[in-house]
Amino acid sequence: MTAINLGMPTPPAPTLAPRRKSRKIQVGKVAVGGDAPISIQSMTTTPTTDINATLQQIAELTAAGCDIVRVAVPTIDDADALPAIAKKSQIPVIADIHFQPKYVFAAIDAGCAAVRVNPGNIRKFDDQVKEIARAASDAGVSLRIGVNAGSLDKRLLEKYGKPTAEALVESAVWEASLFEEHGFHDFKISVKHNDPVVMVRAYELLAQRGDWPLHLGVTEAGPAFQGTIKSATAFGALLSQGIGDTIRVSLSAPPVEEVKVGTQILQALNLRPRKLEIVSCPSCGRAQVDVYTLAEKVTAGLEGMTVPLRVAVMGCVVNGPGEAREADLGVASGNGKGQIFVKGEVVKTVPEAMIVETLIEEAMRIAETMPAPENDGQAGAPVVSVG
Ligand code: SF4
């Protein structure tokens, strides 16, 4: 049996750029900005008035790795549901308020961790800043100033003709100044647009104007496939410059999918510890095994893995042995057989029909010896099902 050196402390994985120096604020128990880990947010899709359904969805999001959740507060009935939701949620709850300043006060009183305000939509917002700042400050509640291309102030739309990056930034800086005039600094900012190019430019400009923590989002990014690509592209462009303190992927799909995509983006950039990573080849004319099916079955069988295990699934002997050796665990297939590698050494050769089962067995054995990533709180071993 090969000696395996697992569970040893490893140095931090390299990132593409140092993090931009932003001010740190609290969203309940989660710090945002400064040296705090980049957090993942999502938003419930249940009616907020349906407290049980909303709490159920929050529990699912929490299990998927969501750090902070936002709930919509369009009516007084939704505002009335906030105390129960804020009390029972395991993760900080942000009330999302667009039109009614009085709901901001209700959300603060309800024990929400933060409130998102959209100054472009909240009528008479400017008159109420002082009161909002005082109430938030007294309650230890932070805010997000959420500027959105779809609800930009009319004055700025007239000035710029459309919601350009410059217009979004001018709006955000103006709204920030209204709070800062009252000595209130516990807020983050977002400047969302559905076009990743405009969005990236807006955040780049905003990042130069102050040290506010920034909440990244491509708004109305679209259905899962398109939205994932738009978000990954835009977030990647910004995070690779160190810009961004918390992220929300917006998909026309169940919110758990948003959390999964956000997690993958952060893991890909080494901004969150990597968990299960399947390194599988695209297959080509040399493949001697059905790589797609093999990779899918291994992925499905290892779903729920919480340790940073890298599993290589390769179709032939060209790159197979090399990649399999680099991974914690791997298979290189050929001639109806699979060579199983653990930490660079061939530990066994099995018939093709046994590859998936053997990889899963080996993965479980390795996972049991590995500590779960920090802050995870879960055991390393996955709940495994053979796909
Ligand atoms: S590992 Fe083999 S089958 Fe897979 S892409 Fe490379 S050459 Fe093709």
Percent strand equals 15-25%
Shape-level CATH architecture of the largest domain: Alpha-Beta Barrel
* The CATH top-level class label of the largest domain: Alpha Beta
Q: What are the low-pLDDT stretches, counting only 5+ consecutive residues below 50?
A: 1-7, 375-387
Class from secondary-structure proportions: alpha/beta
Gyration radius (Cα, Å) is 24 Å
Assign an overall shape: elongated
Each distinct ligand? iron/sulfur cluster
**Helix-strand pattern:** EEEHEHEHEHEHHEHEHEHEHEHEEEH
Overall mean pLDDT stands at 89
| Fold-level CATH name of the largest domain | TIM Barrel
Write down how many β-strands occur, each being a DSSP E stretch of 2 or more residues: 15
The level of helicity is: 25-40%
Specify the number of helices: 12
Distance between the termini: 27 Å
| Total discrete domains | 2
Query: In order across it, which strands form the biggest sheet?
Result: 8-7-6-5-4-3-10-9
Let me know the largest β-sheet.
8 strands, parallel
CATH superfamily of the largest domain: Dihydropteroate synthase-like
Structure, explained:
- The protein is of the alpha/beta class and 387 residues long.
- It folds into 2 domains: 25-269, Dihydropteroate synthase-like (TIM Barrel, Alpha-Beta Barrel), CATH 3.20.20.20; 276-369, Sulfite Reductase Hemoprotein, domain 1 (2-Layer Sandwich), CATH 3.30.413.10.
- 39% of the residues lie in helices and 18% in strands.
- It has helices at residues 51-64, 76-88, 101-109, 125-139, 154-160, 165-180, 196-209, 224-239, 255-268, 291-301, 320-326, 355-368, and strands at residues 25-27, 30-32, 39-43, 68-72, 93-97, 114-117, 142-148, 187-192, 215-216, 246-248, 277-280, 310-314, 329-334, 337-342, 345-351.
- The strands form 3 sheets. An 8-stranded parallel sheet has the order 8-7-6-5-4-3-10-9. Strands 11-12-13-14-15 form a 5-stranded mixed sheet, with helices on both faces. Strands 1-2 form a two-stranded antiparallel ribbon.
- α5 (154-160) runs antiparallel to α6 and α10 runs parallel beside α12.
- The two termini are 27 Å apart.
- The model is unreliable at 1-7 and 375-387 (pLDDT under 50).
- Bound molecules: iron/sulfur cluster (SF4).
- Residues 281-284, 286-287, 314-316, 318-320 line the site of iron/sulfur cluster.
